C-alpha cells in the first residue's frame, strides 16, 4: 500500500491530515545563539532546506558578548511551527529557543524614501505615524518610523501616494511582556550545600 500525502520539492512526504486540519499561523521564535561566524548561515540554511516560510529574521548582540539573539518570524501550520523549533534546537550553536506569546512586545523600524515634490504633505503623513524625517533634498525625503507590523504596513500604504522610491525594513524585534525573559540554558546555578549556603572555593590565608 502506497503511503498517503504529497511530497514537497525535496521529496519529503507531508502528512495530508496535518496539512488539511492546520491553517498557517504566524509564530515569533526568539533564539539565543553563540555569537560566532557562520551561525546566521547555518540557521538560514536550515530554514531553506526545510522550506519553512520565513517572514523576517533579525540578529543582534545581547548583554553577553558571546551570545547573540535571533528573532525569527515564520508562517506555518502548527506541525511546521513545532518542527521549526525542534530543528533549531538541534543546531550546535543554538543555546535556547522560545516561541513568544502573541501579546509580546514587537517592534520594527522602517525607512521610506519618497518623492520630495510635496514636503508639507509628506511631513503631515509622517506625523500621523510618529515618524521623523532623517534626510531631505529637493528630489527625495526619507522618513524613519518605528512600531508594530500593523503600523508599519499602514504607513507604507499611506506613503504610496508620494511615489515611493525605496523601502527598507529591519524585521521584527520582540520580547515577552512582564518579567519573562529568554534565559541562557547553559548558565547553571551553583550547587547549594545542605546548609543552604553556596560552597566557597578554598583559599590560602
Strand content: 25-35%
**pLDDT averaged over residues:** 84
Q: How many helices?
A: 5
Q: List low-confidence stretches.
A: 6-10, 188-193, 198-205
CATH superfamily of the largest domain: ACT domain
Number of domains: 2
CATH class of the largest domain: Alpha Beta
Largest sheet composition: 5 strands, antiparallel
What's the overall geometry? elongated
Report how far apart the termini are: 78 Å
Topology:
Blueprint: H1 16-21, E1 25-34, H2 39-50, E2 54-61, E3 67-76, H3 78-90, E4 94-99, E5 105-115, H4 119-128, E6 132-136, E7 140-147, H5 149-159, E8 164-169, E9 173-175
Antiparallel strand pairs: 1-3, 1-4, 2-3, 5-7, 5-8, 5-9, 6-7
Explain what the structure shows.
By secondary structure, the protein is α+β, with helices and mostly antiparallel strands. It folds into two domains: 80 residues, 2-Layer Sandwich (Alpha-Beta Plaits), CATH 3.30.70; 71 residues, 2-Layer Sandwich (Alpha-Beta Plaits). Helix content is 25%, strand content 33%. The chain has five helices and nine strands, in the order H-E-H-E-E-H-E-E-H-E-E-H-E-E. The strands form two sheets. Strands 5, 6, 7, 8 and 9 form a five-stranded antiparallel sheet that branches. It has a four-stranded antiparallel sheet with strand order 2-3-1-4, with helices on one face. A hairpin with a 5-residue loop joins strand 2 and strand 3. The N and C termini lie far apart (78 Å). The C terminus is likely disordered.
Amino acid at each position: 500500500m502506497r503511503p498517503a500525502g504529497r511530497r514537497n520539492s525535496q521529496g519529503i512526504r507531508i502528512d495530508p491530515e496535518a496539512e488539511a486540519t492546520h491553517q498557517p499561523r504566524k509564530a515569533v521564535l526568539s533564539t539565543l545563539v553563540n555569537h560566532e561566524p557562520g551561525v546566521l548561515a547555518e540557521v538560514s540554511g536550515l530554514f531553506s532546506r526545510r522550506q519553512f516560510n520565513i517572514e523576517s529574521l533579525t540578529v543582534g548582540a545581547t548583554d553577553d558578548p558571546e551570545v547573540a539573539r535571533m528573532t525569527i518570524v515564520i508562517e506555518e501550520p502548527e506541525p511546521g511551527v513545532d518542527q521549526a523549533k525542534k530543528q533549531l534546537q538541534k543546531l550546535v550553536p543554538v543555546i535556547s529557543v522560545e516561541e513568544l506569546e502573541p501579546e509580546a512586545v514587537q517592534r520594527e523600524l522602517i525607512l521610506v524614501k519618497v518623492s520630495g515634490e510635496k514636503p508639507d504633505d509628506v511631513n503631515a503623513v509622517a506625523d500621523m505615524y510618529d515618524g521623523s524625517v532623517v534626510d531631505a533634498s529637493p528630489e527625495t525625503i526619507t522618513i524613519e518610523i518605528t512600531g508594530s507590523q500593523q503600523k508599519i504596513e499602514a504607513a507604507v500604504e499611506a506613503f504610496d501616494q508620494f511615489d515611493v522610491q525605496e523601502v527598507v525594513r529591519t524585521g521584527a524585534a520582540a520580547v515577552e511582556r512582564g518579567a519573562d525573559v529568554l534565559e541562557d540554558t547553559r548558565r547553571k546555578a551553583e550547587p547549594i550545600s545542605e546548609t543552604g549556603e553556596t560552597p566557597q572555593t578554598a583559599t590560602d590565608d
